[in-house]
Each structure stands twice: as C-alpha cells, then as structure tokens.
C-alpha cells in the first residue's frame, strides 16, 4: 500500500519538474491519517499524510486524484510561497496544467462515521437543549463556563447523554 502511494507521489513530482523545469525536494510520506480526510499536506514540514482506510476503499481515484491533490499543495507552496490560498489559483493551475485533473477541493468517498456521544446541557429559560461534544463537556468539568445567548444564564449539564 505505502509503496503504491510513494510511487504515485514520485510520478507527480516528476511531472511537476518537467512542467516547471526545476527540481523539488521530496516529502516524507505517511499513512498515519484517520477520520474523514483522505490526505493532508504539511507545508512547513514537507510532509504528506494519507488515510489508509480511504485508500483501500477507493484505490484508483485515491491514487489519481487525492495523491495529486496533496502533492499540488506542496508544489504550490514551493513555487509561490506561503501567502497563497490553499485551493487558490496557483494550486488550481497545478492541478489543471501539470496533472490534467479537475481541481476538486474535497473528495466524495463514503466515510463511515463512528458513534458520537453528545452531553445535553440546558439553561434557565429552557430555550431547548445544547448538545455538547466530549471535548466541550470535559472543558466544563475543568471549570469552563458556557452561557445561553438568549437569557445569559450558565448552561448546566442535565445528566443526559445521547449516542448518535
């Protein structure tokens, strides 16, 4: 798996070098990405991270589109600097001109979402319920306070939680 992605990264770099008539330093490639993102380019570290699960489920498109998408971020950064927009004109130029691919910002791979627990908070005006994430609930336990925007009273944990 890693070998196929590494090979595609190298192919993308060779295409960019022919197009721009210059060399680029090769990035570190990692398969240490989970969740909904298919890939991430770390510009400052010259590193690419890919999601192995999404790769296994979408190999052809992943190799063609996703790998090129992430490499294009590093090439754009190297060519045009850090002040460009992530999916701006420079990145789009690389996707179209170098890779002859549509400059798609997001993938449409089916992503299985894991069950998420929501902690239910309420206020004095009872203007509904406020489902908090685990992270926000933990912040409350450490002393963080949240207020209702309508009545300005502190949101309090109701003791209820829901998985969904």
Automatic annotation (TrEMBL):
Record's GO cellular component terms: cytoplasm
Any Pfam family matching the protein: SprT-like
Any one GO BP annotation for this protein: response to stress
Chief place where the protein resides: cytoplasm
Keywords: Cytoplasm, Metal-binding, Zinc
Chain residues that bind Zn(2+): 69, 73
The name this protein goes by in its record: Protein SprT
């Amino acid at each position: 798996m890693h070998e196929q992605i590494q090979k595609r990264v190298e192919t993308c770099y060779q295409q960019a070098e022919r197009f721009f008539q210059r060399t680029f330093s090769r990035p570190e490639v990692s398969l240490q990405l989970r969740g909904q993102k298919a890939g991430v380019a770390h510009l400052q570290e010259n590193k690419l991270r890919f999601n192995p699960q999404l790769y296994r489920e979408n190999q052809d498109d992943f190799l063609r589109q996703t790998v090129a998408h992430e490499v294009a971020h590093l090439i754009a950064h190297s060519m045009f600097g850090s002040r460009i927009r992530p999916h701006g004109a420079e990145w789009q130029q690389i996707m179209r001109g170098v890779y002859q691919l549509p400059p798609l910002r997001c993938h449409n791979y089916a992503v299985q979402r894991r069950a998420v627990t929501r902690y239910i908070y309420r206020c004095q005006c009872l203007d509904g319920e406020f489902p908090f994430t685990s992270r926000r609930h933990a912040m409350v336990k450490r002393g963080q306070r949240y207020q209702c925007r309508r009545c300005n009273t502190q949101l309090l944990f109701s003791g209820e939680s829901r998985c969904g």
